[in-house]
């Protein structure tokens, strides 16, 4: 695993930073399942800056894991990633369907 996506845990309907994020064109929300979202807008690490890239330009994938009864998000390299290289993952079609305001 390269890193873990961390942040505050909220329910799908109770994420306080989503309106401000949409206004600024930013989104740090990552769904772990149908109910819970990790929001890294205020509390997080550098994984929140991973950018979207479709294959074959992506170099990482996100996996939702169940660890000690909690859903966690791990980022795993799919290619060799050099120190200082940007982490790129495919956000997936579902992301853009739920966030059309961010699609450019």
Automatic annotation (TrEMBL):
The keyword Oxidoreductase does not apply. SMART domains: SET. GO terms for biological process: heterochromatin formation. Residues 1-92 form the SET domain. GO terms for molecular function: chromatin binding; histone H3K27 methyltransferase activity. GO terms for cellular component: ESC/E(Z) complex. Keywords: Transcription, Transcription regulation. Pfam families: SET. PANTHER family: HISTONE-LYSINE N-METHYLTRANSFERASE E(Z) (PTHR45747). This is SET domain-containing protein. The lineage of its organism: Eukaryota, Fungi, Dikarya, Basidiomycota, Agaricomycotina.
């Amino acid at each position: 695993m390269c890193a873990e996506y961390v942040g505050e845990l909220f329910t799908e309907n109770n994420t306080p930073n989503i309106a401000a994020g949409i206004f600024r064109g930013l989104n740090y929300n990552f769904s772990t399942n149908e109910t819970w979202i990790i929001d890294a807008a205020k509390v997080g690490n550098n994984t929140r800056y991973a950018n979207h890239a479709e294959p074959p330009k992506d170099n990482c994938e996100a996996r939702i894991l169940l660890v000690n009864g909690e859903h966690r998000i791990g980022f795993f390299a799919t290619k060799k990633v050099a120190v200082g290289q940007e982490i790129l993952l495919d956000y997936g079609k579902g992301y853009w369907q739920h966030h059309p305001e961010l699609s450019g």
